[in-house]
Amino acid sequence: MMLTDEEKAELRSLAASQSMRADSELLRAASRDPFIVDGKVDCDRVMEFLSEYNSFLNHPVKPCRQFIEKIMLL
After folding, report:
1. I need a labelling partner for 67 at 20 to 30 A (CA). Which of 15, 24, 30, 37 fits?
2. 10-46 CB burial, b ≥16 within 10 A, e <16
C-alpha cells in the first residue's frame, strides 16, 4: 500500500514534533522487560514464558536430550 503525499507529510510532521518525541520517551521509560530482574535476565521467567507460550500454541513438549560435544572451537 502506497502512502499519499498528504499521509507522508503528516508522518514527517509527527517525526519532527517535540511533543511526540517526549511522549515516546515517556512510554519507553515506563516500559519494562518482564525477563529482567535486578538488571539481569531471570532464566526461570524466560523458561516459564516459553513453556506457557508452547502450551498456548498447543505443541507437545519435546524431551530434553543431553548436549555432548567432544571438540568445541571458538
Report:
1. 37
2. eeeeeeeeeeeeeeeeeeeeeeeeeeeeeeeeeeeee
Domain count, the chain: 1
pTM: 0.42
* Parent domain of 25: 17-57
Rounded Cα distance, 7 and 1, in Å: 12
The amino acid sitting at 50 is L
Q: How far apart are alpha carbons 49 and 41 in whole angstroms?
A: 13
One digit per residue, the tens of pLDDT, for the chain of length 74 reads 799 999 999 999 988 999 989 998 999 888 888 898 898 999 999 999 998 988 888 767 778 888 888 887 77
